[in-house]
Amino acid sequence: MLIRWQNVLIKMEGKMKMKIYAKKVGICTLKEGVTLEYIRKRYPDAIQIDHIPTEEDLKEWHNEGGGCEAIDGCWVDPDGQCEHGYDSWLVALGWI
Ligand SMILES: [Zn+2]
User: Fold this and answer.
1) Residues in CB range of 46: below 8 A, 6 or more apart
2) pLDDT of 11 higher than 80
3) How far does the centroid of ligand 1 lie from the alpha carbon of residue 76, in Å?
């Protein structure tokens, strides 16, 4: 039973549309079947996005000293960039 469920989950994952972020295009949802590798040929800095921060996240970050997570999960200034060259979420979302 366990193995069957795993197969189902793998299939679901394959069908879920992936969200990515690249500087030139911002946050966008990939069409079904488009892989990150494919997108990276055109936008080498493209990174997969697992989650977009919620208002709760932002409040928490504010309470933690006013920093902000970068797209790749690094901790940066709200208007900053991490050492890997990724913008903070606030910049990526166009909020500042
Ligand atoms: Zn980083």
Assistant:
1) 20, 21, 22, 36, 39, 40
2) no
3) 9
Distance 84 CA to ligand 1 centre (A): 4
Give the global pTM. 0.71
Residue 4 CA, ligand 1 centroid: distance in Å: 37
Does pLDDT of 34 surpass 80?
yes
Domain boundaries, the chain: 17-92
Rounded CA gap, 60 and 79, in Å? Answer: 17
Interval 53-96: pLDDT, tens: 888 998 899 898 889 999 999 999 999 999 999 999 999 888 88
Asked whether 53 and 68 are in contact (CB, 8 A), the reply is no
What does R_g of the chain's alpha carbons equal in angstroms?
16
